[in-house]
Structures are given as C-alpha cells and as structure tokens.
Amino acid sequence: MQKVGAVNLTDKYFDEEYFDGGKGYHCYNDDPRFQVYADYIVKTYSPKSVLDFGCAKGYLVKALRDRGVEAYGYDVSKWAIAQADDNIKKFLTSSKLRFVDLIVSIDTLEHIPVDQVPRIIQDIKTKSKRQYLVVGTVNTPNWEHDASHVTIKKLSYWQNILPGADWVESV
Question: Three-class SS of residue 63?
C-alpha cells in the first residue's frame, strides 16, 4: 500500500488503534454478521474452497470452516492476523493469495488506492473461479468516518472493472 493524502496505508496503519481504538472501528469483534455471511456463501455458492480477501481477525474464515468449507484469509494487517483465534491463524496470511473456488471480500476494496485497484482486481480474478465482493460506495452511509476509505466510487465503477463478479453495495 502507499500514502494517500494524510494516510499511510501500510500494514502498520491497520493496527490495534484501527481495529479497536476508533481510527477505523471502535471494536472489531466476532459479531453475528460473519455467521450470516457464511450461511449465505455456503447456500449460494456451495464452494469447496474460499479466500476471504481482507480477512482481518479471521472471523469469516472461522465461520466458513465451522461449516466444512476449506477457508483461508488474506489481510495486509499482520496485527489483525496475530489477533485471530489460535486454531484459525494457520489459515491466514499477509503474503500471497492462493487459488480457490470463491474469493470473498467484504468492505475491503474501498481501502485500496485507485491506482492499485486494477492490479488487485486482476489478482482476485486469476486466483478464483468466482468472486463475491461487497464494497463501500458513494451510497454507503458514513463511509467518510474512516480515513482509509480512499476509493469510494459508484457501484458501476466496480462492476465495470470485474464484470463477472457478484458485486454488492455495502450498507
């Protein structure tokens, strides 16, 4: 990542203060939405393998594994990965993507500087058969609360750069 405006978007930016101290979230915890997402993913896609791109502390990876899915996670934040459940950490990485049936990304892509979006999208496309991508857009309420939301666009922007993916607007 790179410096965007006053925000230096490296793994060091996405630290304890970001996830639990109000810089991004006030308390990033294992809330019921991860169970809801996991149920939806299993029911809709029936994937054998999933990669959660932007997995943070690995809550969705855990929920998917609890449902028998071979799930993995990728996140730029080494701090967030270190906070994951000990049984899940071994499935999380900050180094490289692996090929899977489905890449899921929930509220992550808007954190990527616009000049890096094409490369990241290409990586996502080449490392998966399908993609389920939830993204913050200009219509997402209160998106400006987080200074690392640096690529806030209309949903059509995202749909045009990866037309075959299942895109959903974050609410």
Answer: helix
3 pLDDT higher than 50: no
Sign of the dihedral through C-alpha 154, 54, 121, 40 = negative
Instruction: Domain of residue 112: give its range.
Output: 3-169
Q: CA nearest 157: which of 141, 136, 171? A: 136
pLDDT digits (tens, 9 = 90+) for 109-147: 999 999 999 999 999 999 999 999 999 999 888 888 888
Which pLDDT band holds residue 27 (cuts at 50, 70, 90)?
Answer: low
Q: How far apart are CA 88 and CA 125, in angstroms?
A: 25
Sequence-distant (6+) residues with CB within 8 A of 113 are: 1, 2, 4, 9, 150, 151
**Nearest of 69, 60, 55 to residue 30 by alpha carbon:** 60
Write down the pLDDT at residue 8: 55
Three-state DSSP at 142 gives coil
Q: Where are the alpha helices (DSSP H) in 46-97?
A: 59-66, 78-82, 86-89
User: In CATH, what number is assigned to the domain containing residue 120?
Assistant: 3.40.50.150
